[in-house]
Task: inverse folding
């Protein structure tokens, strides 16, 4: 392999690693059922609910948290339902979503964090924090 081919391979590998969505953090729910959720990836969700969709890339874990400006959707694992939480359901509802430095097809990544302490009868008490960098 010549030097030019090596450079192309190295740039492609670095570019691919740098252009991945990621999320990290943990949430815990104590209520009718107890469960924990540690997202490791995310997508931008603009179809019906504009925001960041955090989940685990794991076929055995269907937990999900969709974060919008003034509300959230929480998927209860194993139940196939999403519970909507509004800012008024939370003691702490700290969400920062803003455009990052990476663009894909003229759409900027969304980076930020979420810190929550919320309660709804359907799920009980939800508390946790996460950071994210989500590509379109």
Result:
């Amino acid at each position: 392999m010549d030097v030019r081919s090596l450079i192309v391979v190295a740039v492609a590998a670095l570019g691919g690693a740098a252009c991945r969505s990621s999320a990290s953090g943990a949430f815990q729910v104590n209520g009718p059922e107890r469960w924990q959720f540690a997202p490791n990836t995310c997508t931008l969700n603009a179809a019906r609910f504009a925001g960041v969709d955090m989940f685990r890339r794991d076929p055995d874990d269907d937990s999900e948290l969709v974060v919008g400006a003034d509300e959230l959707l929480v998927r209860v694992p194993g139940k196939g339902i999403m519970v909507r939480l509004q800012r008024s359901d939370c003691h702490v509802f700290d969400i920062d979503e803003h455009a990052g430095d990476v663009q894909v097809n003229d759409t900027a990544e969304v980076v930020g964090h979420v810190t929550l302490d919320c309660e709804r009868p359907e799920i009980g008490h939800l508390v946790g924090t996460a950071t994210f960098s989500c590509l379109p």
About this structure: The CA atoms of residues 22 and 41 lie 4 Å apart. Strands lie at 22-30, 34-37, 41-45, 51-55, 64-67, 71-76, 81-86, 90-104, 107-120, 124-134.
